[in-house]
Specification:
single chain; alpha+beta; eight-stranded mixed β-sheet
């Protein structure tokens, strides 16, 4: 039997009578990757039955071998020992399941190995169910304890200078930094109400020669807390900005209004007292309300801060985040009764979230049904480790290594 870790997943195969040819095949695959210098195989494990000599299997086992544990698999063999090649940080998630009457598949999670404990079970079937449950439980517990924060929201604009002027003069933001990447023909500008290492900010992207984008119907708006909505509206009008809904009362004395920036992105102005995070929310529309809430709670570790149903207007909202909405930026999910799909356009891009480990973050997302679109690893040149994913509605999120993010700001 052989355990072969191909980048992110480890498989244990126990064929009945074809083991010699199959083991040869896996060994050759590992050797090809090693000879090509692609150190993507993070773990090599062999389970050798007591009655089988290692030399008889004709496998090229790496020289760095560690004895990890012993456990019983009654349907496979009476006694076996597990040998593991020293893992890299791309060590995969694992769970046990059956893939056929004569072949057994084992996936073991890094979340199970961090404390050095081993896994034992009486039967293969019970082990499959128990291991999967424990894996998900440990993964979700790690997500809850991960140091996460919403870093910035990214979207594309057609006139960078015009947009920067609107945000600074009308909305009171500061231009925090700007970077031009001429070889890739784009420029970024970061704006917000405080430094990036402690505040949620906006990252504008201008692609050379592109002056217009389709915002679509899925993106809703950004939220900004202001002390005086009426005064802010007067300023925006004086600067030539567009007010699409005049200030009105909501929840007692609190007022709100909607304005548009030069590219048509909507901003909801909320009248509040002084707050640490004036750029307070991003609203996205979703097609399955409960599914979206569960995904962001489990895969992203967000808390459900508030949930409202408005049957008269046929919509519901859920506020999700990593802290109270009066102190931290939050994600507002909106569900319109009966609408399951939206046009996302090509203007809005993604939200970036900080994490202590992009590799574990990616595996937790996979466990919860998300799609990882960029496997975790360092970016070229700047070496910041990131991973990217899509939620069940197709909204993109990028997770950024916390330490690398701070280095990038320095």
């Amino acid at each position: 039997m052989l355990v072969h870790n191909n980048c992110l997943e480890t498989y244990v195969f126990a064929p009945s009578h074809t083991h010699r040819g199959y083991l040869h095949k896996i060994s050759r695959q590992w050797q090809r990757q090693r000879w090509n210098g692609q150190r993507k195989v993070s773990k090599m494990v062999a389970i050798i039955p007591r009655a089988t000599a290692l030399s008889s299997l004709n496998i090229d086992i790496p020289s760095r071998i560690l004895t990890v544990s012993s456990f019983s698999l009654p349907t496979i063999c009476s006694t076996s020992r597990l040998y593991a090649y020293t893992p890299s940080r791309r060590l995969a998630l694992f769970h046990l399941s059956n893939v056929g009457p004569q072949v057994h598949l084992l996936k073991v999670s890094k979340f199970l190995r961090d404390d050095g404990n081993t896994l034992e079970a009486a039967t293969t079937g019970n082990l499959a169910q128990a291991s999967k449950a424990v894996t998900e439980e440990n993964a979700l517990e790690w997500v809850k304890n991960d140091k996460r924060r919403m870093l910035h929201v990214v979207y594309r604009v057609g006139d960078l200078d015009k947009t920067i002027k609107f945000y600074t003069e009308c909305l009171g933001m500061k231009l925090l930094r700007k970077r031009d990447i001429p070889e890739d023909r784009y420029t970024n500008a970061f704006l917000g109400y405080g430094p990036e290492d402690s505040h949620f900010v906006i990252e504008l992207t201008y692609n050379y020669g592109v002056d217009k984008y389709d915002i679509g119907t899925g993106f809703g708006h950004f939220g900004i807390a202001v002390e005086d909505v009426a005064k802010t509206v007067d300023l925006i009008k004086a600067k030539g900005g567009r007010v699409i809904r005049e200030a009105g009362a909501i929840r007692g004395d609190q007022a709100e209004t909607f304005v548009e920036d030069p590219d048509g992105y909507k901003f909801k102005l909320l009248e509040k007292g002084p707050t640490r995070e004036p750029l307070c929310l991003v609203m996205l529309r979703v097609g399955d309300f409960d599914r979206a809430i569960n995904f962001y709670r489990r895969a992203f570790g967000m808390e459900l801060l508030r949930k409202e149903d408005n049957p008269d207007d046929k919509y519901a909202v859920a506020l999700m985040g990593y802290g109270p909405e009066d102190k931290d930026a939050v994600l507002e999910l909106t569900y319109n009764y009966g609408v399951t799909e939206y046009d996302k356009g090509n203007g809005y891009a993604q939200i970036a979230i900080g994490t202590d480990d992009v590799y574990k973050a990616a595996e937790a997302i996979k466990l919860c049904g998300g799609q990882v679109t960029l496997e975790p690893g360092p970016l070229p040149v700047i070496n910041t480790k990131i991973t990217a994913c899509l939620d069940p509605d197709g909204w993109k999120t990028v997770f950024v290594d916390n330490i690398d993010f701070r280095k990038e700001l320095d």
